Amino acid sequence: LKHLLMDTSASQSDIESYSETVTTAKEELATGMPTTDAYGDLTTHNLQLSDDIAFNFYGEFSDTVDSMFPDAYVYVEYSDGTVDRELLSELEVTADGKLKISLSLAAAEMTDTVKLRVIFDSSNCGEYIESSVRKYSDIILADESQSSETKELICAMLDYGAYAQEYFRYKTDNLANAGIHSDGDDPLAGITHDSSVKLAKFGSATDLIADGWSLALEENIKVRFYFRADKIEKYAITYKSSDGSVNYGILTSELMENGSYRLEINIEDASLLDNWYTISITNLQDSTQLDITFSVMCYVEKILSGSTSNEKLVNLAKAIKLYSIKANEYVN
Question: Could you tell me the pTM of the whole model?
């Protein structure tokens, strides 16, 4: 799912989703079909909050699997009935020799159930595994050995998911944060507007017209800038993070139906949502340059400034800010 959060105050201004992981033994939900572990199976899974919100599933298999079952695959079924198949031979191999499959989920999908099982051939398959981000989070929240920072981060993530559900009207009868707060508690209390956090533009590049920006709430949070130009190829684009490191070509450009070019950058994890970045776009013919300095929080603070009366949009912006705060507390 690609959820878009629209703010119509500008022509292209809209919100359009660490590497720490917490691991537990898998939940095995057999379906009555014959299964075997003679050749190995998916053994553990964890919740990933780096790069994106994702489930990682890990399997240990015998050395003979590749030769005996060259077409073996992991069967994945999502809650909407969508099915995916990943060949075992094409899965990532971890440092300790396990096979890894990652399933990315959008913010509003934290209560969606995913089902997996390994299919060796028509008569040999592994156990069915069924879980959701919320179900896995419940295991972490009930674990007394987990730190308060971990649990607060998980709760903030679930709040983010729930307010995304409410804004997008997606399965609002099964909210991600249902029951995790005491009655009457407002998880967003204390989240206020910071007027000092604003996007800044410097200079200009000849024949390049800035046409707004947006956030995309997919499996991670993406920042998207929109520009109009006759040819995007005549501009050099660099991206610099607040630590001074410069990356070339990290932005992807795509020509939209309305004639705008969309430049997109992924925010690597929740602890970087308040990080500052600068995009520099230089006209290669005359060396004129446009610099844009921003953070995800610039867009969040724009919403919290009172620019919209949409309560669900404001709550979602607050939830993103809370998620950022708790991610930084966890990292630090």
Answer: 0.81
